[in-house]
Design goal:
With about 425 residues, this protein is of the alpha+beta class. The chain has three domains: about 90 residues, OB fold (Dihydrolipoamide Acetyltransferase, E2P), CATH 2.40.50; about 35 residues, Dihydrolipoamide Transferase (Irregular); about 220 residues, Chloramphenicol Acetyltransferase. It contains eight helices and 18 strands. The strands form five sheets. Strands 9-18-17-16-12-15 form a six-stranded mixed beta sheet. The chain has a four-stranded antiparallel beta sheet with strand order 1-8-6-3. A hairpin with a 4-residue loop joins strand 10 and strand 11. The radius of gyration is 35 Å and the shape is flat. It starts with a strand and ends in an 8-residue tail after the last helix. The relative contact order is 0.11.
């Protein structure tokens, strides 16, 4: 027998600690080499740690939500003889030996007890009148019965055709007839469930708190007529090549932002409020807020200014899949200069998105819905979308925010201009 201590390895990029997100084993478990042990997270990237040995777990260090230092013990194993020798001398491969269980002692089976003869069913009796069956009664009698809490099906009717009368209700009560039981009220529930924020959800909470604490947000919402763009999108999707991705609204919005930002360089920027410096970027790296099971990630489409709608759509799809599969690299989750957050068909009427610090702006397209609008003095049904946005008022003035959004509106409402240089 021997012991082996598995320590948190260096997961790369100068990481000195990682948060324990979830254990997949417990003390006493017998695990095999390469079996999934624990998930740890650093810089929004979750890493699956696997077992380097085969053995029995005798100790685990750290609970979900706690930080573990690189090089600190995580798991202690107890190894059997063969596994212990293998860890001492890896070149000498231990050959597993099959264990054959000893045969169990033969126990004579108890004699079967004969089953009692089945009883013959009793003679069928006529079914009693169902209290819930439909009864004949006038609306006034039904209302009175309801007020008294009497089920009409339990009252014998003496009127024509068995109709229940007011006198029948009186006779029913005088004879000690029971009122229908009052329906039970829903039970009050006082339970409180406490859920500790760990892993990605804790990081999101910290990031949102920091953004709202440090950035004076102001919101701007504009409605956009998406009818022409939706017609173009439908045409392009209907004629696309097999190797081309399906187009959503996002790549068109990205192209509109790329066309509008050069005139508003203070919006494609980071604000270092500690140094008092605004860093304006020529490159447009657009973060795409993506909902995954564990929370919200923001993979980044780098150099959106150099991509057409097809390439942008393909990159958005690739990054979203990598984020959902927990395979996005750190470089793919950092470096955005402006962010888009979209709920798609669930986008609602308007939102007030939280800026992704240290950026100074975030754009949030809402749901596209058909609405009646006035065009050239006539009412027409058009496909309308509200575009919500938030800006850092320390860097972006209201006039600049309005000008930027109005430029996007013009490009989306006349989609041919998106492709004109």
């Amino acid at each position: 027998m021997g012991h082996y201590i598995f320590k948190l390895p260096d997961v790369g990029e100068g990481t000195v600690e990682a948060e324990i997100v979830a254990w997949h084993v417990a003390v006493g478990d017998r695990v095999k080499e390469d079996q999934h042990l624990v998930d740890v997270m650093t810089d929004k990237a979750t890493v699956e740690m696997t077992s380097p040995v085969t053995g029995t777990i005798v100790a685990l260090t750290g609970k979900p939500g706690e930080m573990a230092t690189v090089g600190a013990p995580l798991v202690e194993f107890e190894l059997d003889g063969a596994a212990a020798e293998e860890t001492k001398a890896p070149a000498a491969a231990a050959r597993p030996t099959a264990t054959v269980p000893a045969p169990a002692a033969t126990v004579p089976a108890p004699a079967a007890t004969p089953a009692p003869a089945a009883k013959q069913p009793a003679a069928t009796q006529p079914a009693a009148k169902d209290a819930s069956s439909k009864s004949l009664a006038s609306p006034a009698v039904r209302l009175r019965a309801a007020d008294l809490g009497i089920a009409l099906g339990s009252v014998k009717g003496t009127g024509p055709g068995g109709r229940v009368t007011h006198g029948d209700l009186d006779d029913h009560l005088a004879a000690g007839g029971r009122r229908a039981a009052a329906p039970e009220r829903a039970a009050a529930r006082d339970e409180v469930e406490e859920v500790k924020l760990i892993g990605l959800r804790r990081r999101i909470a910290e990031k949102m708190q920091e953004s709202k604490r440090r950035i004076p947000h102001f919101a701007y919402v504009e409605e956009i007529d998406m009818t022409e763009l939706e017609a173009l999108r439908a045409h392009l999707n209907g004629t696309r090549q097999p190797d081309q991705p399906k187009l959503t609204v996002l790549p068109f919005l990205m192209r509109a932002m790329v066309r509008a930002l050069p005139a508003f360089p203070q919006i494609n920027a980071h604000f270092d409020d500690e140094a008092g410096v605004v860093r304006r970027f020529k490159a447009v790296h657009i973060g795409i807020a993506t909902q995954i099971e564990a929370g919200l990630l923001v993979p980044v489409v780098k150099h959106a200014e150099a991509r057409d709608v097809w390439n942008a759509a393909a990159e958005v799809a690739r990054l979203a899949a990598a984020a959902r599969d927990n395979k996005a690299a750190k470089d793919e989750l950092t470096g955005s200069t402006i962010t888009i957050t979209s709920l798609g068909a669930l986008g609602g009427v308007a939102t007030t998105p939280v800026i992704n610090h240290p950026e100074v702006a975030i754009i949030g397209p809402n749901a596209i819905v058909e609405r009646p609008v006035v065009r050239t003095g006539r009412i027409a049904v058009r496909k309308m979308m509200n575009l919500s946005s938030s800006f850092d008022h320390r860097v972006v003035d209201g006039a600049d925010a309005a000008g930027f959004v109005q430029r996007i509106k013009s490009l989306l409402e006349h989609p041919a201009t998106i492709f004109m240089e």
